[in-house]
Fold this protein.
Amino acid sequence: MVVHGEDGSVVRSERFVTAVCTCRRSKIYPLCDTSHREVRREG
Amino acid sequence: MHLPAPRGELSAAVTAALGGHRGALPPVRGVDPHGEDLTLALHVLYELHYRGFDGVDEGLEWDPDLLRLRAALERPFLAAVREEVGTAEVAAVVEDLLVERLPGSGVSHFLRERGEWWHFQEVFTHRSIYHLKEADPHAWVIPRLRGRAKAALVAVEFDEYGGGRAERMHSRLFADLLDAAGLSSEYLHYLDVVPAPALATVNLMSMFGLHRSLRGALVGHFAATEITTGPSARRMVSALRKLSAPRECVRFYTEHIEADAVHEQVLRHEVIGGLLEDEPHLAGDVAFGLMATELLEDRLSNHVLGAWQDGVSSLREAADVLV
């Protein structure tokens, strides 16, 4: 599968499912690196 | 792989029996369920179901006396873990695991802030026990699932096993990491120096995998692993790059960032979702598996960080083996 990011980046994924970044926080954009998760500051 | 050195009466009896010197197998009474002796004895018995040990009769995998002893070791271990985690709703546990807490206090946080190369080598050593058989314990659950949960879990496993390419298997990527880090990539090479808190994390998945009655817990375990790996793998990548670590060491974690972002979604929605649609009565077991994984991971993390804060190795007799 070929993923085209909105910034012009293009990556090829051979996985059975591809997780695509929609929050633009991923360091491996256009793929997801779970950076969208809630961060809770404690202590 | 040779049999490990015993760490007490139980592990001595087990290794002697596997070595062909069968005496009376000792009763399991008043033993620390998280202690070195019980944990190693259980680990060695479980290994008979994976790849076994050099010179050990393969038929002993189904020896009734050894299976009886294994059950007697599992009971206090499982009971202790159950008592410590309590009960909770699956959705609430998953929700909690998805939150990244800062400032973080785990091993990957420590490594990113002030990790030295020997710290990384110790982590690789602890993890070699599991990562050289990565995904194997979870394969046991396949025949116990059906429909959506089964199809999805098999797809994740296929990915873990490199999508049909031996050089991409996650266990191979970890072997490459060990070689690049100047460590041995031989299966179970470090068994003698890895302490109970790390062995227990592997025992937990072996126990869940080998018992059909614990299939819900196995699914919970798999999901917990896939949910929590992403953020910690990101920290590992940044920590390793800071030290200009070998490419193969970084590669293992970059692969896990990308893979586990996918696996997390599939595990949560298809595997847990599919299983609980099929067998809703397993919800408590799934939650237990999720929490038990976190409990033992926290215990390992506390052990490792505790040792490092005291300026000592988190391994047993580290000096002999790590050279």
